[in-house]
Amino acid sequence: MIESLDALRALYPAASARSLAKQTDRLDETMRRFVAHAPLCVIASVGAGGALADASPRGGLPGFVQLADARTLLIPDATGNNRLDTLENLLADPRIGLLFLVPGLDEVLRVNGTARLRDEPGFIDRFAAEGVKPPRLVIEVAVREAYLHCPKALLRARLWWPEARVAPGSFPSMNAMLRAQLGSAVVTETDEQARERYRAQLADEGLAHHLR
Q1: DSSP code of 210?
Q2: Can you tell me the distance from the alpha carbon of 145 to that of 127, in angstroms, rounded to the nearest whole number?
Q3: Could you tell me what percent of the chain has a pLDDT over 70?
Q4: Which site in 10, 64, 168, 196 is 20 to 30 Å from 130, CA atoms measured?
Q5: What Cα–Cα distance (Å) separates residue 97 from each residue in 43, 89, 116, 176, 191?
């Protein structure tokens, strides 16, 4: 078992000068372009009092995360399950980690910083558009570290390869998995009812066309 930094480092060669030098304290032009094209962002946060870390995916059309400037990102909080795991964590501990993914690209943009939850009109109105429901709040991220992650993880995963996709019908639906966990007395919704609920939620946000 590895229980010390020395023991850990003994297993690996030293980090290359390039891997250390690529980290910046702001988003350069390449990184800003990456954010503008990313339809998916994964948010990592940590709760108070030794609570476990949490990672939560956030999605939207490319550019749904806005750049206020080279050191500030704005993430609208869309409709979810109302557990508020991420938001409660950020209230307790503002540290935040982000992963931005762009379909077809094997590189990943990593951003670390601190967050504030903003509900002032100046933040909400930035995401106002005709037919689109504005978010209740916006996660404002002060960028402290940013760097492009090498593509090896996604290459190993073959994430964007068409032949690596799960065939339709070969994996149980979310409702089927929940019924197996909780029982049919708790999960009474059918798959079609679930899809209708998603359609209604997305339509309320002005995004009904997102669901096939």
Answers
A1: G
A2: 25
A3: 96
A4: 196
A5: 6, 12, 13, 32, 33
pLDDT surpasses 70 at 152: yes
Ramachandran angles phi, psi of 105, nearest 5°: -100, 135
Q: Residues 67, 73, 74, 80: what is their CA dihedral angle, to the nearest 10 degrees? A: 130
Task: Give, in order, the Cα–Cα distances in Å from 27 to each of 32, 73, 113, 144, 188.
Answer: 6, 9, 12, 10, 46
Give the DSSP letter of residue 127. G
Quote the mean pLDDT of the chain: 91
Domains of the chain with bracketed CATH: 18-157 (2.30.110.10), 166-210 (no CATH)
CA distances (Å), origin 2, targets 5, 21, 52, 194? 8, 28, 21, 45
The whole model's pTM is what? 0.90
Q: Indicate the range of 79-88, 118-127, 187-196 predicted with least confidence.
A: 187-196
State whether residue 10 is helix, strand or coil.
Answer: coil
Of 190, 192, 211, 193, nearest to 202 by C-alpha is: 211
Both tokens assigned to 190? 């059918």
Cβ(89)–Cβ(54) under 8 Å?
Answer: yes
Report the pLDDT value the prediction gives residue 193, as an integer from 0 to 100. 85
75 vs 19, residue with greater confidence: 75
3-state secondary structure of 2: coil
pLDDT (average), residues 25-52: 95
- pLDDT score recorded for residue 42: 98
